[in-house]
Amino acid sequence: MKLLQPNKLILIGASTGGPSDIKKILKSLPDNFNSPIIIAQHMGDEFIASFASHMDANTHLSVKVAHTLEVLNSNTVYIVSKHSRIIQEDTKLLFEIKTDSKDIYNPNINALFTSCSHISPEIDILACILTGIGDDGAKGIGTLCAIDASCIAVNEACSAVYGMPQRAKEVSKDVKVLSIQEIINTINKFGVN
Prior knowledge:
Layout: E1 8-14, H1 18-28, E2 37-41, H2 45-56, E3 62-65, E4 76-79, E5 83-89, E6 92-98, H3 109-116, E7 124-129, H4 138-146, E8 150-154, H5 163-171, E9 176-178, H6 180-190
Parallel strand pairs: 1-2, 1-7, 2-4, 3-4, 7-8, 8-9
Antiparallel strand pairs: 5-6
Helix pairs in contact: 1-6, 3-4, 4-5
């Protein structure tokens, strides 16, 4: 039997105030960190490449903009745009990105998170909602909680805006509410082999 690669996946959704928290997370990653991280940070398409470049300078992992049909690799941070989904082909995970989508959020956190609820249960998933306005990510984190993925959201004290994490917490009692330092610790522990 072929093993799925990667066998772990970290998903992060953020909006207003998110970049500074994402930077803290990426700076903290230990040398033996081995899980791919997929980040959906609300922003205009014109800023995504420079955001990825800035984040790349703050971690020892490779940070890149995700492209459609790109295969996910361990030790890599992917910044998504538009309506990005994760699909499974045989033993690999790939990005599927619809550039003609009319989503109100760019990128759409719900689309990313929900797509991961359909991949193999052999893959461990950690989903995280950081600070932001609105409710993007709540529906997606609900679908992930339903398949027993680990789901966390930042607490109010650590949020620039408490909209998205609050909605995520309301969707399922299984969403753990943590400080940003506790989120960093959880991600670091989860991402090490």
